[in-house]
Amino acid sequence: MRLTQGQKANCKRRATVATVFTRAPWVRTPEQVAESLFRIQRHAAADGQNPPHPESQRVGASLLQGKTAVIQEVAQEMQRRDPKGIKTRVALTDGDRALQILVEGTLRVRLLLDLLHVLEKLWKAAYVFHAEGSLEAELWVLDRTLRILFGEVSQVVKGIRQSVTKRRLFGAKRKTLCGIADSLHPIALVCAMTNTSAGPSPVARSRARARTSSRIAWSVPECAGLRRWPRPSSNSEPYT
Q1: pLDDT score of 176
Q2: Residue 4, Cβ neighbours under 10 Å: how many?
């Protein structure tokens, strides 16, 4: 096919993909989530703890329709399945802030961010401080993941920004870390708005996260021969 004037060769277009399904709630602790993501010794699943399977899953993708049209179709499908609105509705998106705003405004649901997209940024930050594939890098990401799961996203963002200043980083390293901190900042704002006074205090959350971090870290195979593992300091500074 001959290209018309103004068209470029090998031009890629991004498809909009959406899926709608119904699933029973599956409540997990931050420790259980972390165990499923890192190469640690997992505890045997208790009876009835297997994840429920999605029901009546419908998947759609389009290169021609925009995000708005696809999300409108998702809204129609949700209304068809739950016309009385008695089910709990949530939406999972990636880190595209424009997409998050569009989904939240159109579907009127509780918005969730895919943790795997956050982990990509954490691994990228870890490799600024530690060698790629090292135990220190894995423990760094493990600690930050637990902080995020315990609702301490703002502390993670603050720690990354402080690391840039205290270590006097410039050039590509500074640009990488500042970009990661900026991308995590909207998540911190969402967490701050959703935290209620009825929940655990920040001190209680911090202590629970520290206990969980130590317990999980000792399950990492490489930590088996260590007398102690590199612990994070009281602030959000990375391991040294």
Answers
A1: 93
A2: 6
Q: Which residues contact 205 (CB under 8 A, 6 or more apart)?
A: 150, 151, 152
What CA–CA distance (Å, rounded) separates 217 from 23? 32
Q: Write the burial class of residue 72 (CB in 10 Å: 0-12 exposed, 13-18 middle, 19+ buried).
A: middle
> With the C-alpha atoms ordered 199, 104, 28, 77, is the resulting torsion angle positive or negative?
positive
Sketch the domain layout of the chain as residue ranges: 16-39+53-113, 115-223
Whether the pLDDT of residue 2 is over 50: the answer is: yes
Phi-psi region of 70 (alpha: psi -120 to 50; beta: other; left: phi over 0): alpha
DSSP 143-168: HHHHHHHTT-HHHHHHHHHHHHHHTT
Quick: pLDDT tens for 168-205.
989 999 999 999 888 887 665 555 544 444 445 555 55
pLDDT band for 124, please (50, 70, 90 cuts). Answer: very high
Q: Phi, psi at residue 43, to the nearest 5°?
A: -75, 150
| Residue count of the chain | 240
- How far is the C-alpha of 139 from the C-alpha of 38, rounded, in Å? 10
